[in-house]
Design brief:
- This protein is of the alpha+beta class.
- It has two domains: 11-36 and 73-178, Cathepsin B, Chain A; 184-314.
- It is built from eleven helices and nine strands.
- A six-stranded antiparallel beta sheet has the order 3-8-4-5-6-7, sandwiched between helices. The chain has a three-stranded antiparallel beta sheet with strand order 2-1-9, with helices on both faces.
- Strand 1 (43-45) and strand 2 (50-52) form a beta hairpin.
- Helix 2 (29-36) packs across helix 3 and helix 8 runs antiparallel to helix 11 (291-314).
- The longest helix is centred in the last third of the chain and has 26 residues, at 236-261.
- The model has no long low-confidence stretch (mean pLDDT 95).
Length: 315
């Protein structure tokens, strides 16, 4: 039996959790989400007026790699610079030995999902566990265990042409091999170093004039979003993005970070819990379309983010 885990928003963490379970290690999606480091910091993209409570330098595909390495695993990670031919022969070989995490995928081609016509360009990750002549069998963390997808559709999804952060095409992870047993204290030490590095790398990037024009990060990003909301200078797309996705996901991620930090760094845990409360309150205001309240909440989130980053980097 292939273990199924699913919560939609944590698709890459869920998929990695299922892969680890197939190798005999049970790690919760919430723990993997933290180790991925994707939910640290924030990003404002001025050109499109869009906001993310995401790390600039660790997109989900890099996050999976980081989490598996922090947990002490070696593995095979593949991708292709060429989009012409999906590597189904290699996938079939890999699946003879182990399930395979596939992603990013374009959800607009995942036709077992009733909403697929409206999801073009949204990124996603799944666990493949068998391949037939015409279909691939999958566990999809968006609430679809044991589904199948025609290979033509999988090829289009896996090509990921519309996914902005993709690095090549047809990326996957498989064949876990235990490199080291990692204690909780060692895992915390490793993770802390990765989190510190991600903040420092992001800061170094935006020190460059070209990057600085393209992105605002961390508390500056949060304040830019708050100002756009307060001034009425934001799009309906941003409001929908905040109300449907960013704020509630940000609150859940912040709580997961709080749980991770609590045994080792209570001050960091308290700051993440504070962010979670503020983001939950802001989500409630967003659903009520009280955008001035959302802006006020985000200003408080920015203050907590600045304090969290300062304490984290001083550890």
């Amino acid at each position: 039996m292939i273990t199924y885990v699913g919560s939609a928003f944590y698709c890459y963490a869920d998929s990695a959790s299922m892969l680890l379970a197939s190798a005999g290690q049970r790690v919760s999606s919430s723990r993997i989400e933290v180790l991925c480091g994707v939910g640290l910091g924030a990003m404002w993209v001025p050109d499109v007026g869009m906001f993310f409570l995401n790390n600039l330098t660790t997109p989900p595909d890099k996050g999976i790699t980081q989490a598996l390495e922090l947990l002490g695993w070696r593995f095979t990670e593949r991708s292709s610079s060429e989009a012409a031919m999906p590597p189904f022969e290699q996938l079939a070989e890999d699946l003879m030995l182990s399930p395979v995490v596939l992603g990013p995928l374009d959800m607009g081609f995942l036709k077992y999902n009733p909403l697929w016509p409206y999801l073009r360009g949204a990124d996603h990750y799944v666990l493949a566990y068998a391949l037939g002549a015409e279909e691939c069998l999958l566990h999809d963390p968006a609430g679809f265990p044991y589904v199948s997808l025609p290979l033509d559709d999988l090829g289009q999804a896996w090509k990921a042409e519309s996914i902005r952060y993709r690095r090549g095409h047809y990326r996957c992870w498989t064949a876990l091999r235990r490199q080291a047993e990692v204690s909780e204290d060692e895992l915390y030490r490793r993770a802390l170093g990765a989190f510190q590095a991600s903040y420092r790398i992001s800061e170094n990037l935006v020190a460059n004039e070209e990057w600085a024009a393209a992105y605002k990060i961390n508390e500056d990003a949060i304040l830019n979003c708050a100002s756009a909301l307060a001034d009425g200078a934001c799009t309906q797309a941003l409001k929908a993005h905040l109300g449907d996705f960013v704020l509630r996901l940000g609150a859940k991620r912040a709580l997961d970070f709080a749980s991770f930090f609590e045994p080792h760094a209570p001050e960091l845990a308290a700051l993440k819990e504070k962010q979670a409360r503020l983001l939950g309150r802001s989500h409630t205001a967003a659903v009520r379309e009280d955008w001035k309240a959302v802006a006020g909440g985000l200003r408080e989130v920015a203050g907590a983010e600045e304090e969290f980053r300062s304490v984290l980097l001083s550890q």
